[in-house]
């Protein structure tokens, strides 16, 4: 049976279709002389092993990205399942983004959230214009990770948990 298709010009239908794809959520942050700057991103993807690359997508209208893009190093923290409130805070008003958010910075200014599933110290390699967003390629310079920490998953406009399934034998 053929699905009942809606024209892509229906923005609500397009957003609903995009929300069907579950994704991890990250914080992209840096420390500056004026204070800490950061944002949440739900469009994170691994790209390459050699060189080590990841990507995030950033809205062209973002007022935060211009403050991040020029950093020598950025901290990318993969949110853990218990960090939903921190994720929402980093997506909210800039003045209160870091309230009650435990964090630390490297000497290079990469800022990381405590308790995240993974931390990646990155630099901006390239920005590619893509519609009303930019695909930002980030080169990883150093990292730490704990696969035993459950990640925060964003699906259908809400946070969800993963379920481990055993392979059938």
Automatic annotation (TrEMBL):
<dbReference type="InterPro" id="IPR002563">
    <property type="entry name" value="Flavin_Rdtase-like_dom"/>
</dbReference>
<dbReference type="Pfam" id="PF01613">
    <property type="entry name" value="Flavin_Reduct"/>
</dbReference>
<feature type="domain" description="Flavin reductase like">
    <location>
        <begin position="18"/>
        <end position="161"/>
    </location>
</feature>
<dbReference type="InterPro" id="IPR050268">
    <property type="entry name" value="NADH-dep_flavin_reductase"/>
</dbReference>
<comment type="similarity">
    <text>Belongs to the non-flavoprotein flavin reductase family.</text>
</comment>
<dbReference type="GO" id="GO:0042602">
    <property type="term" value="F:riboflavin reductase (NADPH) activity"/>
</dbReference>
<dbReference type="GO" id="GO:0010181">
    <property type="term" value="F:FMN binding"/>
</dbReference>
<keyword id="KW-0560">Oxidoreductase</keyword>
<protein>
    <submittedName>
        <fullName>Flavin reductase (DIM6/NTAB) family NADH-FMN oxidoreductase RutF</fullName>
    </submittedName>
</protein>
<dbReference type="InterPro" id="IPR012349">
    <property type="entry name" value="Split_barrel_FMN-bd"/>
</dbReference>
